[in-house]
Amino acid sequence: MRVLILLSIITQLPYTVRSQNIQLHYDFGKNRQLLTSTTTMFKADNWGSSFFFIDFNYDKNKGNTVSFAYMEVSRALKFWDAPFAIQVEYDGGTSLNDAWLIGAQYTWNNPDFTRVFTIQGLYKYIKDKHNATFQITGVWGIQMLKGKFTFSGFADFWKEDNVFGTNETSFVFLSEPQLWYNVTKNFSIGGEVEISNNFGGNEGFMVNPTIGLKWNF
Description:
By secondary structure, the chain is mainly beta. About 0% of the residues lie in helices and about 70% in strands.
């Protein structure tokens, strides 16, 4: 699972803002009945923003311990008053090729920041696999019914060669829309649907729903 908080909201603000949350999801996907915990941290400053998250999967078939770990660390650089920023990112995890990305992002938001959309165009280097490829990322966040519901998520599309038996694929798609009911300003109940194509060692199209809890610090 990958979780993105709304980078674009914070990078528009002139003062320092920090956000952190923990999520716990149960995955109902085929052959994927496992728990995933996600910790995120986001901090904005006068020169942009920093973001990281760490995912841990807990598989009861593998000793009820951490069976997979994944992290992303990124920095958005923004020294000007415009909806554009420079994006630098590192992605890595167990049994995965490390990846470094650099590019640009554009952000749109309505006046009260209840609707925010960001699109990124990135050069992507995948260690021991691709010296030059690309990734396109879209991120959105929508507050509904006076903030009682939050619809957020991301969609990634990138070029990466993979081999599944005798079949070869060249592109990967991953999207994780989330819907949350905000019980309080700190506690939310909801979940996400992971929609993917040729992702995570699985050939073809897959849909994996979850149910989750979120605590905002």
